């Protein structure tokens, strides 16, 4: 059994907490910039373990007992509290644009933070590119005696210089024997591998060995802007495939996420920061979904107001978000139980 380093677990917990703090800080700064009064900034739920409020400050900062999740309490956001129509610091009295800005700032903060993390990773660690050197898994390649570390030079007599070109040749040839020219050390070998068919595409059971390529600050900046978009896009596509039954859900709760971030921390700080970037982009995209209790759910009600020019019933909205929160917490509890059991 592999020993678990408590520092890696702590890094995983703090990394997840950092992403939540970034998210709520987005709400905090946007609310203040819009003239709203922020009553409380809490990391975690339940009884507070630590509190701080400056003498002239209006916001109470606290760390609560239950460490997962975080929230910002903006004055006037609770429909069950008394709203003074003359209170300019109340969320309820703010303009529609200000309220949209305050809500969307949370997901936006995670998205921007993901770009910052990716920029650091690319600038310091370079970019990893797949090569035609392979790691062999179970499958036709292993059966044909291909070995991990072998470099594929040609397929069916056609020279291959990059992974994607080689992959395309294999994908279009399911169940068709292919001649591979392989470099193993100083040897050149000829192997015949028959790709098996998976959903109509050829697979031989190999993954690429990656090489690190240094990048300029400009290239790092471009990639750090593109990658968060790709993460969000892929997560939405995957969600659609899960809803339509094309993919089985593979969910992770806080325990599972901490486990993965701990693994990344054990591999090195660049892997850890990269995974935090992926999680930050995913968190921003997930929160923007139009589901009750999420920021996207609140934006949906604000969108209704923008279209109809009238505010929705605040109590109905509150009950909808409360129902969504119960569903969300129930899902988190079920997934967490599964993570712990596994």
In short:
With 342 residues, the protein is of the alpha+beta class. The protein is built from 9 helices and 10 strands.
Task: Set out the fold topology.
Elements: H1 6-33, E1 38-52, E2 60-74, H2 96-125, E3 127-136, H3 140-143, E4 151-155, E5 158-159, H4 163-171, E6 178-184, E7 187-193, E8 196-198, E9 201-203, E10 206-213, H5 217-243, H6 254-267, H7 269-287, H8 295-308, H9 314-341
Antiparallel strand pairs: 1-2, 3-10, 4-5, 4-6, 6-7, 8-9
Helix pairs in contact: 1-2, 1-6, 1-7, 2-5, 2-7, 2-8, 5-7, 6-7
Structure overview:
It is a single chain. The strands form 4 sheets. The chain has a 4-stranded antiparallel β-sheet with strand order 5-4-6-7. Strands 1-2 form a two-stranded antiparallel ribbon. The longest helix has 30 residues, at 96-125. The chain contains 9 helices and 10 strands. With 342 residues, it is α+β, with helices and mostly antiparallel strands. Helix 2 packs across helix 8 (295-308) and helix 5 crosses helix 7. The mean pLDDT is 88. It starts with 5 loop residues before the first helix and ends with a helix. A hairpin with a 7-residue loop joins strand 1 and strand 2. 51% of the residues lie in helices and 22% in strands.
Tell me the structural class.
alpha+beta
Write the element-wise H/E pattern from the N-terminal end onward. HEEHEHEEHEEEEEHHHHH
With strands numbered from the N-terminus, the spatial order across the biggest sheet is 5-4-6-7
Mean pLDDT metric: 88
Unreliable parts: none
Terminal Cα span: 15 Å
Q: Please bin the fraction of helical residues.
A: 40-55%
Number of helices: 9
Estimate what percentage of residues fall within beta strands: 15-25%
Largest sheet: 4 strands, antiparallel
Computed CA radius of gyration, to the nearest angstrom: 25 Å
Shape: elongated
Strand element count = 10
């Amino acid at each position: 059994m592999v020993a678990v380093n408590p520092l890696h677990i702590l890094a995983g917990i703090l990394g997840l907490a950092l992403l939540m703090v970034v998210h709520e800080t987005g709400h905090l700064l946007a609310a203040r910039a819009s003239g709203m009064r922020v009553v409380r900034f809490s990391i975690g739920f339940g009884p507070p373990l630590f509190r701080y409020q400056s003498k002239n400050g209006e916001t109470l900062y606290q760390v609560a007992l239950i460490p997962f999740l975080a929230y910002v309490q903006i004055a006037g956001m609770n429909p069950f509290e008394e709203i003074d129509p003359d209170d300019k610091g109340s969320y309820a009295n703010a303009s529609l644009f200000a309220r949209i800005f305050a809500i969307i700032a949370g997901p936006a903060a995670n998205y921007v933070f993901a770009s910052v993390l990716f920029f650091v990773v690319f600038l310091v660690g370079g970019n990893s590119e797949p090569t035609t050197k392979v790691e062999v898994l179970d499958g036709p390649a292993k059966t044909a005696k291909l070995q991990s570390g072998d470099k594929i030079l040609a397929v069916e007599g056609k020279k291959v210089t990059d992974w994607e070109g080689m992959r395309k040749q294999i994908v279009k040839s399911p169940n068709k024997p292919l001649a591979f020219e392989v470099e193993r050390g100083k040897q050149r070998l000829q192997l015949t591998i028959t790709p098996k068919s998976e959903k109509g595409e050829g697979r031989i059971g190999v993954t690429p060995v990656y090489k690190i390529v240094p990048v300029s600050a400009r290239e790092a900046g471009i990639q750090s802007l593109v990658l968060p978009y790709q993460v969000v896009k892929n997560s939405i596509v995957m969600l659609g495939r899960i809803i339509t039954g094309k993919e089985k859900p593979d969910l992770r709760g806080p325990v599972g996420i901490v486990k993965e971030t701990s693994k990344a921390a054990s591999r090195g700080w660049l892997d850890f920061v990269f995974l935090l970037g992926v999680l930050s982009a995913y968190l921003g995209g997930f929160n923007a979904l139009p589901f009750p209790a999420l920021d996207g759910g609140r934006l949906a009600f604000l969108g209704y107001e923008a279209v109809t020019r009238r505010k929705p019933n605040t109590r109905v909205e509150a009950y909808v978000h409360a129902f969504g929160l119960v569903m969300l917490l129930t899902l988190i509890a079920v997934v967490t139980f599964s993570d712990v059991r596994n």
